[in-house]
Amino acid sequence: MGVFMKIIVQTALLLAAAWTIIPTAAARTCSTHVKKRGYDRKQIALTFDDGPDPVYTPLLLETLQKYNVQATFFIVGEKAERHPDLIRRIQKEGHDIGIHNDRHISNWLLSPSAMNHQLVRAAERVSAITGERVTLYRPPWGHFNPVTLSKAKRFETIMWTSIPGDWKKNMTTRRLADKLRNARSNGAIITLHDSGNTLGAYKMAPRMMIESLHLFLSDEDSRQYEFVTVTNLFNKQRA
């Protein structure tokens, strides 16, 4: 490879990093506009991405109801429009509803205008069903580009303290339950998934995740925590 070609390749890699890895690392570690942990009190926020799913979301809601857990769902906009009754059920049962882009697409692949469209369209679809303004956002895969935070400034951007890999095919029920126990801490935000149809996910993974939740939520130590929505996790009046 000639010197000129090396310069072109290096420049291209630098530009790619400037649009993908660098803003993601900065947002996750330094940004005051991204929330990653609640207050130091015995509360945990369970969050569920990629839904709703007509098979697994109802099973998950039954589990959450059984253990008196309030959670937060980051919804894919186009899925919300296909399953409005599930969105209404999530809302009726007292859970938070945020957005996860209109399609499950990485922000690394979006131009500024396309990024804005994903946010606006997802929020419109969900609001049309719930009658409420969407206030929470989580980028798919936790990917930020340089304009993500500015385009999402109307929302609270929520990341996590733990993402235990429930979507993986080689994950087991007991191993995931152990990971959930290890993630248990004051103000923790734990990310799980109620759909297995996302690129890279094992289709049956949500069933295993729900089984793990039963083990985790029935654990004596878990009973020492209050499981709350993200909104309540960051409610200063409850501190």
From TrEMBL:
Species this protein is from: Domibacillus mangrovi
Example GO molecular function: hydrolase activity, acting on carbon-nitrogen (but not peptide) bonds
Name the UniProt record assigns to this protein: NodB homology domain-containing protein
UniProt KW keywords: Signal
Database matches in InterPro entries: Glyco_hydro/deAcase_b/a-brl, NODB_dom, Polysacc_deacetylase_ArnD
Taxonomy, superkingdom: Bacteria
Signal listed as a keyword: yes
Biological process per Gene Ontology, one example term: carbohydrate metabolic process
Pfam families: Polysacc_deac_1 (PF01522)
PROSITE patterns for this protein: NODB (PS51677)
Every NodB homology domain range: 42-228
